[in-house]
Amino acid sequence: MGTTNSEVSNLPFEEKFEIYKNKSSLKLNEVITNYKEWNESQMEIRNRWLIDKIVELLEM
User: Distance (Å, rounded) from C-alpha 29 to C-alpha 5?
Assistant: First the structure.
């Protein structure tokens, strides 16, 4: 079974990274494992990626 965000919400990124890498059933969370750290810059990159995916879906 996958891990929910509420289960890891207050953990440091390093711990979340390991959990998402090994247990996440949510495909969106897999993208996070591409990063070595999680900061404002990385969040902006992921937000842009999410927006692009939404636009792709809406264009179908």
Answer: 9
pTM: 0.54
Task: Judge contact between 29 and 20, C-beta under 8 A.
Answer: yes
**What DSSP string describes the chain?**
-PPPHHHHTTS-HHHHHHHHHHH---HHHHGGGG-SS--HHHHHHHHHHHHHHHHHHHH-
pLDDT for 34 equals 77
Domain count of the chain?
1
Range of the domain at 35: 5-59
Q: How far is CA 13 from the centre of its chain?
A: 11
From CA 7, how far away is CA 14, in angstroms rounded? Answer: 15
